[in-house]
Amino acid sequence: MIANERPLLELEGVKKSYPIKRKSLTFKKDYIHAVNGITLDIMARETLGVVGESGCGKSTLGRTILQLETLNEGSVKFKSQDVSKVSKAKKMQLKRDMQMIFQDPYASLDPRQKVGRALEEPLLIHTKKTKSERQTKVNQLLKEVDLTEEHAERYPHQFSGGQRQRIGIARALALDPQFIVCDEAVSALDVSVQAQVIQLFQSLQENHDLTYLFISHDLSVIRYISDRILVMYLGNMAELAPANVLYNYPKHPYTKTLLSAIPSFTVNERKERLKLKDTDEKNGPVTGCPFEPRCPMAKDHCKTLIPEWREINPGHFVACHEV
Amino acid sequence: MQNSNENLLRVEELKIEFSSSKGPTRAVNDITFNVSKGETVCIVGESGSGKSITLLSIMKLLSKNGEITNGNIHFQGNNMRNLSNKQMRKIRNQEISMIFQDPMTALNPVFTIGYQITETILNHSGLSKKATHERVIELLTLVGIPAPKQRIKQYPHELSGGMRQRVMIAIALSNNPKLLIADEPTTALDVTIQSQILDLIQDLKEKFNMGVLFVTHDMSVVTEIADRILVMYGGKIVEEGTVEDVMVNPKHPYTEGLLNSVPDINRPDRPLEPIPGSPPSLDDDIPGCHFHPRCKYAMEECSIEYPSTFTIDSDHHVNCWLQKTGEWSHHVSESEVLYDSQ
Ligand SMILES: Nc1ncnc2c1ncn2[C@@H]1O[C@H](COP(=O)(O)OP(=O)(O)OP(=O)(O)O)[C@@H](O)[C@H]1O
Ligand SMILES: Nc1ncnc2c1ncn2[C@@H]1O[C@H](COP(=O)(O)OP(=O)(O)OP(=O)(O)O)[C@@H](O)[C@H]1O
Ligand code: SF4
Ligand SMILES: [Mg+2]
Ligand SMILES: [Mg+2]
């Protein structure tokens, strides 16, 4: 990262919430604050890892950045341009430059469309490539994710789970994007194919200056691939630090519990894990730290004061009163 | 463990083929294994090696162009190939549950998740409506869904990926099946929730003597729950044994490669060592050992004849010609760090 370079992406107070249906007759609506104020920069050629428990808003964050969801508050800038305010022509360009590998490959593929066609379609819409050029590109994409030309003739349900995930990856790569949200992009892959795909991501980054937002619940993969890592808790930023720093000097109590849960490969032996308090509350208190109801270190003021987002060391941010 | 009258599931010489415009292709080629009551058998293997297909064929849920061309599947002593669709549906409802690799194949997008779980429970229990409702909430709590009373009113697309997966697990466990078939059930889950789910499966297994057939590519999950492991490659079982046998003392070069590809959390700088080359496509007709084009130990005979089954000890079997001389031992890097076998 070069210090005075403009970031590729700038997120400013990004929020996205969904209304909760209720049977009650009052008109007061309740919301799930899926993404609740994310502010950060992503530099070109960087891999920003995102971790956090299931349901904490990782996929929603990715979709919001790509404008697959309209945000409720805040802004997303790509190359200094607010993505929600660009002209129509620019919007097409953005759609090429920013891609997403979806968590659920089944849901993101049209079941009636042959895979070759699914890969060709973005080329048809966004490029002036001739038919044979498109064909060549499709074959090259398939090869890159370790599939073969014959696979182009099959429908999505005729693949194994890991193969389908790789089709999703190939499709995201089709338009040579600059930024990709990888949402659990390697989680359905067995370790060997996973290692190959990770190497593919890394070589694309080196050769084509790609930037990734890499969402994964696999803490080994995240550490391996990320430059910096964001830890999310219930839609909020808990901690952000360079990968090594985060793993060696975690500061937020939530990060600490998360890291203590990494399984060991030792046969028949379980690691002692730090325990979180159980709670029924779905979205934490509005008044204090969102993590307070489950935090083993919480003090009284955690209930009432929202912790500030502080830079405790250069590049190491944390939101916790007790750090 | 292998006492035949405790056998819950026996798969014998199973072959599965898919028809395509280019003729039939073989996805599963002659596999045989057992699952006993109260036993967890894990299948590991490369993407496309035939794991899901094997599970689906047990459930009689192969897609239209797929067919069992040889072999038998016995469940509690009955040959399932002779069962009618109706009988099979009954078994799927009451005795065997499956957790699918893609949650959206199992969940209906137009019904709330509460409705879907309630339906499964009402279908095979005499519970009252109220008791059923309580059971639904209990199940969702068990799989770690926060605020279940609100969540039951939501539709599948309103849940996060990991939540959908857990709802499907709740449905599969709702009727205390005799056999649980789980296809990568925890891929979308973080480790904390994953271990909660694994504990839950472990509990049911002990309480009800449930047999578990579990596909995963996550070696840490394997070490946590498996009694035995089957390693699949190119539609065949290439190594089989207890967890200790296979993880600590792998005998097949593919198993070795698999273990070497795992990113090591303690050594992020260690380059990953993927197995070179690609998994075989179903259309390739590879003579001899399917793995030989990618195997760094391949010898002349490997490309000529499929290796016979060598028995390392009573439970540990491998199909690899290296065993003919019996001298090869594995080269898993960091073995002393990763595997502590006491
Ligand atoms: N379309 C929607 N309607 C209502 N609620 C939604 C919708 N999409 C997401 N949510 C809610 O927003 C929250 C965050 O979901 P999201 O999918 O971003 O989580 P995640 O961090 O990706 O989790 P996972 O690791 O399980 O994939 C969840 O509580 C989810 O139920
Ligand atoms: N309906 C189908 N028609 C043709 N080929 C199919 C069909 N379904 C699966 N296959 C092929 O059969 C092989 C085995 O698929 P299977 O789904 O069992 O793999 P898997 O071991 O579960 O892999 P993964 O780990 O990626 O899920 C794959 O090569 C797949 O492409
Ligand atoms: S039989 Fe030969 S090619 Fe196959 S795994 Fe053994 S050594 Fe390698
Ligand atoms: Mg998600
Ligand atoms: Mg599968």
UniProtKB/TrEMBL annotation, chain A:
A GO molecular function assigned to this protein is:
ATP hydrolysis activity
Which InterPro entries does the annotation name?
A: AAA+_ATPase, ABC_transp_ATP-bind, ABC_transporter-like_ATP-bd, ABC_transporter-like_CS, Oligopep_ABC_C, P-loop_NTPase
One GO biological process term is: peptide transport
Q: In its keyword annotation, does this UniProt entry include Transcription?
A: no
Q: Where is the ABC transporter domain?
A: 20-259
Q: Where is the signal peptide?
A: none
State if Transport is listed as a keyword: yes
Q: Which UniProt keywords apply?
A: ATP-binding, Nucleotide-binding, Transport
Which family, according to UniProt? Belongs to the ABC transporter superfamily.
What is the protein named? Answer: Peptide/nickel transport system ATP-binding protein
Source organism of the structure:
Natribacillus halophilus
From TrEMBL, chain B:
User: Which cell locations does it reside in?
Assistant: Cell membrane
Query: For the ABC transporter domain, which residue ranges apply?
Result: 9-259
Which InterPro entries does the annotation name?
AAA+_ATPase (IPR003593), ABC_Ni/Peptide_Import (IPR050388), ABC_transporter-like_ATP-bd (IPR003439), ABC_transporter-like_CS (IPR017871), Oligopep_ABC_C (IPR013563), P-loop_NTPase (IPR027417)
**Entry-linked Pfam families:** ABC_tran, oligo_HPY
Q: What is its main location?
A: membrane
Q: In what way does this protein cross or attach to the membrane?
A: Peripheral membrane protein
Would the keyword RNA-binding turn up in this protein's UniProt record? no
Q: What is this protein called?
A: Oligopeptide transport system ATP-binding protein
One Gene Ontology cellular component:
plasma membrane
Source taxon at top rank: Bacteria
Q: Which SMART domains match?
A: AAA (SM00382)
Q: Source species, please?
A: Natribacillus halophilus
Q: Which GO terms describe its biological process?
A: peptide transport
Keywords of the record: ATP-binding, Cell inner membrane, Cell membrane, Membrane, Nucleotide-binding, Translocase, Transport
Kindly give the NCBIfam families that the UniProt entry links to this protein.
Answer: oligo_HPY
Q: Which family does it belong to?
A: Belongs to the ABC transporter superfamily.
Q: Name one GO molecular function term.
A: ATP binding
